[in-house]
Every structure is written in C-alpha cells, then in structure tokens.
Specification:
There is one protein chain. The chain has about 450 residues and is an alpha/beta fold. It has three domains: about 150 residues, Rossmann fold, CATH 3.40.50; about 170 residues, Dihydrodipicolinate Reductase, domain 2; about 90 residues, 2-Layer Sandwich (Alpha-Beta Plaits), CATH 3.30.70. The strands form two sheets. Strands 7, 8, 9, 10, 11, 12, 13, 14, 15, 16 and 17 form an eleven-stranded mixed beta sheet that branches. Strand 9 and strand 10 form a beta hairpin. The model has no long low-confidence stretch (mean pLDDT about 95). The structure holds NADPH dihydro-nicotinamide-adenine-dinucleotide phosphate and L-homoserine. NADPH dihydro-nicotinamide-adenine-dinucleotide phosphate binds next to helix 1 and helix 12.
Length: about 450
Amino acid sequence: MIEYRNLRVALLGAGSVGAQVVKLLLQHGDELAQRSGAGLELVGVAVRDLDAPRTADIPKHLLTTNAEELILGADIVVELIGGLEPARSYILQALNSGADVITANKALLATHGPELFEAAEQVGAQLYYEAAVAAAIPIIRPLRDSLAGDRIQRIMGIVNGTTNFILDRMDTAGESLEHALATATELGYAEADPTADIEGYDAAQKAAILASLAFHTTVPIDKVYREGITAVTLDQVEAAKKAGYVVKLLAIAERVTDPATGVEGVSARVYPALIARTHPLATVHGGKNAVFIEAEAAGDLMFYGAGAGGVETASAVLGDLVSAARRHVIGGPGVAESNNANLPILPIDRVITRYQITLSVVDQPGVLAAVATLFSEHDVSIETVQQSVAPLAPAERAGDTELGATLVIGTHQAAEADLSATVLALAASAVVHSVTSVLRVEGNE
Ligand code: NDP
Ligand code: HSE
C-alpha cells in the first residue's frame, strides 16, 4: 500500500456547492489521492450556522464558524462562500500564508481578480477557478493551457442558465418573459432575487473572466458592456424564429480593431442577440451553458454542459483540488496569470457587428427610399429588407390612414456608433411611426 503525503484541505462554505464537495471528497478520497499523489485530508468546513440543514452529511466535528483559524496551517483552501467579503479577506489570508486557493466565486474574481492573482504570485501560490465560469464545463483550463499557443479571435458564451432557460421557454413554448421567469423560479433555476441573472450582471462577470484569459489582458468588470434580457419581448422572439434566428443572452469577448484608430483591442460585452438557428449555440436549450470559441489555428470549438448545480459545480472544484495537490507534490511556484498583452479595452461604440431593426412606417410611396437614405447617410449598409402591411395601432393612426407597414431591415457589418446614430435618425423621421426592435446579430452564419 502506497503511503501518501497528507495535504490539509480547508473548506469555506457548505452550501449548494460546498456540501457536495464534502460528499465527493469523503466518498472518493482514495481515488483522488491516487490521482494526486497526495492524501487530501479535509481538516474543517467553515459555515455561518453550525445547525443549518445541509444537502449532504457533513461530520459535525468538521464544522466550525471560525474560518480564520481553519485557514491557518491549511495547504489548500477552497472558498465556496460567495460574494465579495469576507471571501476576499479569507482568500488573501490563505494566499499570504502560502496556501493554494480554489474558488468558484466569479463576482469576486471579476471585481478583485488582479489583487488576488498578485497576492498568489508574490508567494508562489496558485489560485484555481475552473468552476467560476460555466460551472461543470471545463473552460478555464482549456483557455489557460490548451489554447495558450493559439490566438483567440472571439468567444461567445451562453454562460447564464437562468436566462437561457427563460429565453428558451419563450422560443419553444411561446411563454412571455414574465411567465417564463415564473416557471424558472418554480423549477428552482432562478434565485428568489433574479436580478443578477436577468439584468446580465452574472454573465458580465463571466465575460470579464473569459476576456481576461483569452486576450492575456486584465478586463475589469466596469469595462464590460451589459444589457440584460428584461426588454426582450415575445414578439421579438417570434419574429426571430420566422427569420431563422433565436434570441440568446450572449457573453462576448472579442479581439476588435478600433475603427477610429486602427489599433487592436478587446471588446467584452453581454446582450441579448440574434443567432442563426443553424449555429451550434442555437442548440443550447433549457438551463444549459455553452462556450463557443473561434481561434486562429484551432478553428471553431464548443464546450457544452451544466453551468450550475451543486454536484456539477463540485466536479470542477474537485478537478482544481487534484491539480493543486499535484502541484504540491511536484513543488515549485504557481504559474502567474498571463496578462502581459495589456490590450486596450474598447467601448461598445467601437464594436462592429450586424443588426436587425424593425420599424413601423407609413405605407406610402417613397418611404422605403427615405428609410434607405437614412441608413446610407450614417454609413450603414442594408443587407435584407422585408416588408409587410398591417393595420396600425390606434396611437399610430393619423387622419384616415389605418394601414401601416412593418419593415424588418438586416444590415451588413456596421459600427455600433453608426448604427446608434441611424436609429436616432429613424426615430425622428416623419415616415417612421416607431422603431419597434433593434437587435444585434452575432455569429458568422
Ligand atoms: P450557498 O449560498 O449555497 O452557500 C454559501 C455557504 O457559505 C453556506 O454554507 C454559508 O454558511 C457559508 N457562508 C456564508 N457566509 C459565511 C461566512 N461569513 N463565514 C463562513 N461561512 C459562510 O452558495 P453556493 O454553494 O451556491 O455558491 C458558492 C460559490 O460557488 C459562489 O461563489 C457561487 O457564485 C459559486 N457558484 C455556484 C454555483 C451554483 O450552482 N450554486 C455554480 C457556479 C458557481 P451557512 O450554510 O451556515 O449559511
Ligand atoms: N445564476 C447562475 C446561472 C448560476 O443561472 O447560470 C451559475 O453561475
């Protein structure tokens, strides 16, 4: 029988994810020791309430409310508390004492990542965070290691399960956003307060992490452009379907050449966008996540799976635990986070993409030409136009005109700044009753 060196593992948090980490670690400890070359001894589990119900059996003697004491003397600290504080202070305490740290905390990494990576580098420790983006899906390690020799052009991720569930219900079951959100809450996908999900904050944190890794550049959360899904209507989803698209909340990290200066930079953004139904991301249903990567040499890659869930997320945490243990066995300093490219981070108005604009217009000769002129005056090239005639809404009727036309205009690639100016001009035009919908179109198909 092989005698392994023992590594002391301190766990902070025993909620949805933490309790499952305890369960799997206690269940499969021997196997994990064989894979790591070291025994993984769980020395304690810090929680707030010693008597709170848990989703897995945790031996009572392991529970403590004294996280700081638990961190002292640990070789590896696993932070599964969530939020900014005290998680940040605990991680700094652990790193400063030379322990490796594993976290699933995207909010903390997107806000204080550079400080934490710097602290790890100072002492030669390593900060692991595979579970922080898309939970069970291996995406951090592929970006950091497997694709480190390639040049990534763009990442498009469905990285929030709650919003994907809601948009999918709207698309497949014809539910309104409110109804789909209620279903998501009932089935346990959405939190009691779903703001972080539906307003895109959660996806923006993940976009910041993905963009930083992919482009070797620190991308702070306040540089990520963000729109949530609350303005998406069932009409938009149904019109998208008829046109061969599906609406998805996308977290996009892209290498972009600034149209104003010609300088290469990074764009990180989150918004609901149209994606062709033939695109691999269109097949991601329900609460599932997927990350689609376009790399210069590797081509297109897609990573798919569970982006949430206690046991699923615990899988990624335990993968990090094995990596950390192997590193301890081999010895040597941790690998510093690569941020040396230091590319400029471009604001949303420098982004170039395609758009679909829906207009309610007056139905009379010359209207199409007037609308087309506004696009060309702002340097936006039209690719497709579809027109249908229908009764006007009462508020849009003028005199005895009861009919109006709906124009659905698809553009070629255009700069966001030019598109915004076009939309303003359209809204002010006498031939346009209203701009009903403006959605970006993403993906190369
Ligand atoms: P939970 O809210 O279910 O659990 C949090 C745990 O932390 C609880 O056990 C709580 O103790 C403990 N805790 C909170 N504050 C303190 C404190 N001050 N001192 C000690 N313990 C404390 O969170 P999750 O398990 O859902 O999430 C953990 C992390 O994983 C978060 O960063 C989250 O973003 C991330 N994550 C979660 C996913 C998921 O599907 N749940 C998916 C991907 C990432 P007590 O139980 O006593 O209240
Ligand atoms: N609230 C997140 C989601 C959990 O819906 O995907 C995982 O980060």
